[in-house]
Every structure is written in structure tokens, then in C-alpha cells.
Write a structure and sequence with these properties.
6 helices, 2 strands, binds protoporphyrin IX containing FE, mainly alpha, 65% helix, two-stranded antiparallel sheet
């Protein structure tokens, strides 16, 4: 089985990484959005659930990011070429860059607040540096804004896929369901 993407499609590995991480990111997004700043209504448990899932999936999410930046985005199929392909491609890169920013800002935000990262009831990861309100504000702002980029980008992304599937019927959706055969 081929791991690298063919010229204008995705390998099974890319497809598996896409769907697995899409589910994890949307889950993290919804759980993250349910954390109340004042930690009421079980929000501490929600926060610990958020950090536990994030740390469990941490290496996988980085693997997905590095994989795409390292091997680059595959080229368009003949029916896809043009301005909309370029917009789609850079939306994909923006989504991946935002996920990287979430993975960095998340732990830095927890530590700069003087907390440790809770991972299930297994262990905690204490901060390697002293807390700082200024640093917390910066990392928190990055985390919140990148989470907005992710959700707006994902809505546009799903809208684009829907347009291709419902109107263009050009194989864009099936490209992410079945690996493309490499003719080379
Ligand atoms: C792709 C990965 C991640 C996504 C999509 C994500 C998403 C979110 C979202 C949507 C929020 C709510 C933001 C708001 O207040 O509007 C949030 C909050 C939070 N996230 Fe993440 N997150 C991710 C990774 C992480 C990681 C790796 C950590 C730390 C280990 C983390 C720690 C936190 C904490 C502590 C909060 C609560 C901040 C507060 O006190 O208001 N997140 N996250
Ligand atoms: C849940 C509904 C989703 C559907 C139906 C969907 C569908 C697709 C399809 C069909 C492609 C191939 C587009 C092409 O190459 O022309 C694609 C690529 C991509 N999607 Fe999604 N997607 C979904 C969710 C997500 C989410 C939540 C993210 C990340 C936040 C994401 C990030 C990406 C990225 C970065 C690519 C570029 C290829 C790659 O690196 O995997 N998708 N998606």
C-alpha cells in the first residue's frame, strides 16, 4: 500500500488522518466551547475532559500537521483547477496552521495560569515556567481566535464540499473517501 499522496488525490493514510483528526478536532471544539470561564456547572470536569482528549491525541494531531506541510497539498483533478481550487487549498493550510496554534497555545495557556494539565485521572503535567498574567492573556487570545478560525473555516470547507457533491459532481468528495490510484 502506498502512503504518500498521488499527484491529484489522497492516499489511504491521508484519508485516515483526515477523518480521524476531523472528529477529534470537532469534539475538542465543542467541549472547549462548553467550558465556563467561572468554572461553574461542572466546568472543571469539562476542562479536564478537553485537556485529556487533547493530550491523548496530541502526537496524532502533530503527525497530521507535519504530514500535510511536509508532503504538500495534492494538485487539482482536471475538473477542479482554477481560482476555487486555490481558495480551497489555502483554506486547508489555514485550518492546519490553526490546529498547530491550538496545540501550542493550549498547554502554554494552562501553564502560564499556574495550573497543571490534567490527563484523565492518570497523571498531571506541571508547567515548566512560572505563571504570568500577560503571557496567559496572549495564549488565551490565540486559543480563542484560532478556535474561531477553525470553526468558520470548517463551515466554509463543508459548504465547499457540499457544493462540489451536490452541484458539480466532480469527484471532490469521493477523493476523500477512496484512495486515488497513482498512474505514475
Ligand atoms: C486542536 C486542538 C484544540 C481545539 C480545537 C481546542 C478548542 C478550544 C475551544 C473552542 C475553547 C473555548 C475557547 C473560548 O473560550 O471561546 C478551548 C478552551 C480551552 N482549551 Fe482548547 N482546544 C484545543 C487544544 C487544547 C490543548 C492541547 C489544551 C491544553 C492541553 C487546551 C486547553 C484549553 C483550556 C484550558 C481552555 C479553557 C480556557 C479558559 O479558561 O477560558 N486546548 N479550546
Ligand atoms: C465533517 C465534515 C468534513 C467533510 C465532509 C470534509 C471533506 C473533505 C474533502 C472532500 C476534502 C478533499 C478536498 C480536495 O482536496 O479538493 C477535504 C480535505 C481537507 N479537509 Fe476536510 N472535511 C470535513 C471536516 C474537516 C475538518 C473538521 C477539518 C479540520 C479542521 C478538515 C480539514 C481538511 C484539510 C486540511 C484538507 C486538505 C487535505 C488534508 O490535509 O487532509 N476537514 N475535506
Amino acid at each position: 500500500m502506498r502512503f504518500r499522496d498521488p499527484k491529484n488525490g489522497y492516499s489511504w493514510l491521508s484519508i485516515a488522518l483526515h477523518w480521524l483528526t476531523a472528529i477529534i478536532i470537532l469534539t475538542l471544539w465543542f467541549i472547549g466551547s462548553s467550558i465556563n470561564a467561572d468554572r461553574t456547572n461542572g466546568s472543571l470536569a469539562t476542562l479536564n475532559l478537553h485537556t485529556s482528549i487533547a493530550i491523548t491525541a496530541y502526537a496524532l494531531l502533530w503527525a497530521r500537521i507535519i504530514w500535510r506541510f511536509w508532503y504538500k497539498h495534492p494538485g487539482p483533478m482536471p475538473a477542479q483547477a482554477g481560482l476555487f481550487y486555490e481558495i480551497g487549498k489555502y483554506t486547508h493550510y489555514l485550518l492546519i496552521a490553526s490546529i498547530a496554534a491550538m496545540l501550542l497555545s493550549g498547554p502554554l495557556m494552562v501553564w502560564s495560569r499556574g495550573d497543571a494539565i490534567h490527563v484523565w485521572n492518570w497523571f498531571v503535567i506541571p508547567g515548566p515556567f512560572p505563571d504570568s498574567v500577560t503571557a496567559f492573556d496572549v495564549f488565551h487570545t490565540i486559543h480563542v481566535w484560532c478556535s474561531r478560525v477553525i470553526i468558520i473555516g470548517t463551515i466554509l470547507h463543508i459548504g465547499g464540499v457540499y457544493k462540489h457533491a451536490a452541484f458539480n459532481q466532480d469527484g471532490t468528495f469521493s477523493k476523500m473517501l477512496i484512495a486515488t490510484r497513482d498512474e505514475h
